[in-house]
Amino acid sequence: MNETLENSCDILFTGGEVIDGTGAERLRADVAVTGDRISAIGDLGAWRAGQKIDANGRIVAPGFIDVHTHDDNLLFRDADMTPKTSQGVTSVVVGNCGVSLAPLVLGGAPPPPPMDLLGNSADYRFERFGDYLDALDATPPAANAAFLIGHSTLRLGAMSDVTRAANGGEIDAMAKVVEEAMRSGATGFSTGLIYAPNKAAPTDEIVALAQVAGDAGGMYVTHMRDEGADIDKSLDETFEIGRRAGLAVVVSHHKCAGRENHGRSAETLARFDSARAGQKVGLDVYPYTAGSTVIMVDMVDAAERVVITWSEARPEFAGRDLADIAAELGCSARDAAAQLIPGGAIYFLMDEGDVRRILAYPHAMVGSDGLPHDAHPHPRLWGTFPRVLGHYARDLGLISLEDAVRRMTGLSAEQFGLKDRGVLRQGGFADITMFDPATIIDSATFEQPMTPAAGIDMVMVNGEIIRQEGRVTGARPGRALRRNV
Ligand code: ZN
Ligand code: CU
Fold first, then answer.
1. Is the sign of the CA dihedral 42, 48, 49, 52 positive or negative?
2. Cα–Cα distance between 385 and 395 in angstroms, integer?
3. 284 and 213 share a domain?
4. Residues with pLDDT less than 70, the chain
5. How many angstroms separate the first and last alpha carbons of the chain?
């Protein structure tokens, strides 16, 4: 072998501790990057490098993978992906909750909720799923993205009336679109069964479409029909869809919502365990006791507190408590909420004990569910990953730092089929996040949600540094991650 090639690299991380994303204990090692790949890990003190990065006192980890995002359009609107890359995220999965930007052309009509979480009607401009991926190839973002095709998007494209079950012809039409998406490189199919455009879909309709994704090697990801009183039924439906369609399922943002359901995660996680014995089942979770989505009047009663994140009718109310707004308007909270639609809100619905139990469940991945276009977003958009590492792993000792990293890297890449990512090993892609284990922490709060996290020193995507010392470098090496490519 050529010695000069073997002992030199483009970028060398020296003197750091490597957490490799598998859950293995940290190891003192240097990491060499050549081109877009990791060329060596070990004692590389004698290596020559185009650039050396001092990693003393730092953790060198795989870049974090945000498996639950609504960043479909952020990839264009903020190509630096600042809310995510500032946390050390190097890949995002878009198209969650049944809502994908493609393929749908709205042509001037306002996007019905929850499609408005991604942008306005002009943003829905892709006739084919492949066109969307090609557009990303043409204007690459800073981070990588993998793609789900959403059931609400499909229904709005194929049905004149989404308040009923799809008929045979409509199912065939949607199946063709799923086929095209999978051929273009989609990772799978998603639903959001609490949302108006999706909720009338019966189990059989979902199975028919999930099957098309499954036949192409894809997966099924779901925001379930019910995350409260009927969560057991919803879990059963989800597992049934996975078995009948023959594909892996992921339950999105697992939670037990509403005071009367607090504590039930002990039961739901036991159900995950028994399902896992016979089929592929995964889940993701975000580290907060509040959820966030569009304003839905029925969710107002279940929540202990509601904060408005945006409102088209009353933009000045973004960031304020719904109770205060109702007092000011002299009406009930429900009536006030109805007046603010279209809009978004944060709902305090969960119990801290459940959040911790789900986070500690060994098969739970971390996903932010951040909403990047909200005027006053839920802090999970800017804080999720450093919060798990700093608050839950380091400060509370809920899980080890190595295990926390695994749930945002190796486990996520494995479950979403992101080839050669998520684990630091020779030959893998050089998606790398360097952080300070002593200071990493989320800084975003419900009051000041758009605050970058602390303790992230350097973020690299496909061998290029996209962020250093709290600043973007302007590099845009992100790729559209097509399944099996
Ligand atoms: Zn959701
Ligand atoms: Cu979501």
1. positive
2. 14
3. yes
4. 1-6, 485
5. 29
Query: Could you write out the DSSP letters of every residue in 236-301?
Result: HHHHHHHHHHTS-EEESS----SGGGTTTHHHHHHHHHHHHTTS-EEEEE-S-SEEEEE--HHHHH
Enter the pTM of the model.
0.98
Give me the domain span that covers residue 49.
8-62+427-472
Q: Looking at the domain assignment, is residue 485 inside a domain? A: no
Which of 225, 137, 221 shows the shortest CA–CA distance to 478?
137
Residue 101 CA, ligand 2 centroid: distance in Å: 13
Ligand nearest to the Cα of 378, by number: 2
Same domain, 274 and 333: no
In this structure, the number of other CB atoms found within 10 A of the CB of residue 38 comes to 25
Which residues make up the environment of ion ligand 2, defined by Cβ < 5 Å? 96-97, 369
Ligand nearest to the CA of 254: 1
Say yes or no: 150 and 230 in one domain. yes
Pairing of strands 89-94, 104-105: unpaired
CATH number of the domain enclosing 316 = 3.30.1490.130
Q: How many domains does the chain have?
A: 3
